[in-house]
TrEMBL record:
Keywords: Heme, Iron, Metal-binding, Monooxygenase, Oxidoreductase. This is Cytochrome P450 704C1-like protein. It holds the Pfam family p450. Its cofactor is heme. InterPro entries: Cyt_P450, Cyt_P450_sf. GO terms for molecular function: heme binding; iron ion binding; monooxygenase activity; oxidoreductase activity, acting on paired donors, with incorporation or reduction of molecular oxygen. It comes from Tripterygium wilfordii (Thunder God vine). Transmembrane segments: none annotated. Belongs to the cytochrome P450 family.
Length: 179
């Protein structure tokens, strides 16, 4: 069975350079001791029974929503972009499990969630394109073209995520005051 975080993970400097604007110094970009520490923390968090049980419920709920959207589209003979829908369902699930936030990017009813989702999709596509764009470092240096768009998208992403972190921190602090 494949491990979530394999022991022999190495990314290299090119990989780090390409991904760091979007993902920072996270487990998907770093190597060596930083990676080992993050892997240890993540594997502990993801191995707890409570997280596994909760994520199972979240994934099942997301699948029900996904099936509903696909079924509705099929019944009305409406075309849908299935890859986009799968990406949104994954993002919704990850946000619910990791941050306890209902992103709702599949239905698009939560305005900030929709803006985040759009910005994340755009930033991910631009970041992925760096693997074949030989001029991306020049664009980054000059802040032109796709890099300017990437920076705007990252600003939307950061504002959304930092707002969630602030809210969660305040909730935690209030719960500590009550005890």
């Amino acid at each position: 069975m494949a491990q979530l975080f394999p022991e022999d993970e190495t990314h290299g400097w090119n990989h780090y350079d390409i991904l760091t604007d979007l993902l920072g110094d996270g487990i998907f970009t770093v190597d060596g001791e930083k990676w080992r520490l993050q892997r240890k923390l993540a594997s502990y968090e993801f191995s707890t029974k409570i997280v596994r049980d909760f994520s199972s419920v979240v994934f099942k709920t997301t699948v029900v929503k996904l099936v509903g959207i696909v079924s509705e589209a099929a019944n009305s003979n409406q075309a849908i972009e299935i890859q986009d829908l799968f990406m949104k369902s994954t993002l919704d699930s990850v946000f619910k499990v990791a941050l306890g936030v209902e992103l709702d990017s599949m239905y698009g009813l939560y305005k900030e969630g929709t803006q985040f989702s759009k910005a994340f999709d755009e930033a991910s596509a631009i970041t992925l394109y760096r693997y074949v764009d030989v001029f991306w470092k020049i664009k980054r240096f000059l802040n032109i073209g796709s890099v300017a768009t990437l920076r705007r998208s990252i600003k939307v992403i950061d504002e959304f995520v930092y707002k969630i972190i602030k809210s969660k921190t305040e909730e935690f602090n209030k719960s500590q005051d009550v005890e």
